[in-house]
Write a structure and sequence with these properties.
InterPro entries: Hexapep (IPR001451), Hexapep_transf_CS (IPR018357), Hexapeptide_acetyltransf (IPR051159), Trimer_LpxA-like_sf (IPR011004). It comes from Cryobacterium breve. Belongs to the transferase hexapeptide repeat family. Keywords: Acyltransferase, Repeat, Transferase. By secondary structure, the chain is mainly beta. The protein has two helices and 18 strands. The protein has helices spanning 2-7, 14-23, and strands spanning 32-33, 38-39, 44-46, 51-52, 57-58, 64-66, 70-71, 76-77, 80-84, 91-96, 99-101, 106-107, 112-113, 118-119, 124-125, 130-131, 139-142, 147-151. The strands form four sheets. It has a seven-stranded mixed sheet. It has a five-stranded parallel sheet with strand order 2-5-8-13-16. Strands 3-6-11-14 form a four-stranded parallel sheet, with no helix packed on it. A hairpin with a 6-residue loop joins strand 9 (80-84) and strand 10 (91-96). It is globular, with a radius of gyration of 16 Å. The N and C termini lie far apart (42 Å).
Length: 154
């Protein structure tokens, strides 16, 4: 129901969406959330000053904390995967790990952030990247899987 309301054209700005998410029990006060966000649980924390563009996806299986950072449209935060099972059925037990995005970070459009990743303060993740490992502070990463592109001034 909350995801349906978040996509509604009746909710006209990010501040209203943030208030709706706060009323649903999420910790998003002081952030700006544009339309089309899908939230799987209350374990998403958007710190004051966080900005999320349209169409973000949070699977909700583990905690996601986003600092005062910018998240572009279509970014997926996937906090769960599975162990490899036996040949009869390869999908094994569910494994979850949190994701953390530091202050000042910028995540480009349609990037996918996988379980257990920390994106450091002031880091950039290029559009379309698949982030499988931590991104150090003040660095730019891109690609599938993500790799260091260059260091940035702090």
């Amino acid at each position: 129901m909350v995801n349906w309301l978040l996509a509604s054209p009746l909710i006209i700005n990010g501040a209203h969406r943030s208030r709706l998410l706060t009323r649903a029990g999420m910790n998003v006060r002081g952030s700006r959330v544009l339309k089309g966000v899908t939230v799987g649980s209350r374990m998403v924390v958007l710190k004051p000053g966080a900005f999320g563009n349209e169409g973000r996806y949070f699977d909700g299986n583990e905690r996601v904390v986003i600092g005062r950072a910018a998240v572009a449209q279509g970014v997926r935060f996937v906090t769960s995967t599975h162990e490899i099972g036996p040949s009869e059925f390869r999908v094994g037990a569910l494994v979850t790990q949190p994701i953390h995005v530091g202050d000042g970070a910028w995540i480009g459009a349609f990037a996918t952030i996988l379980p257990g990743v920390t994106i450091g303060n002031g880091a950039i993740v290029a559009a379309g990247s698949v982030v499988t490992k931590d991104v150090e502070p003040n660095t730019a990463h891109g690609g599938v899987p993500v790799r260091l592109v260059r260091s940035l001034e702090g």
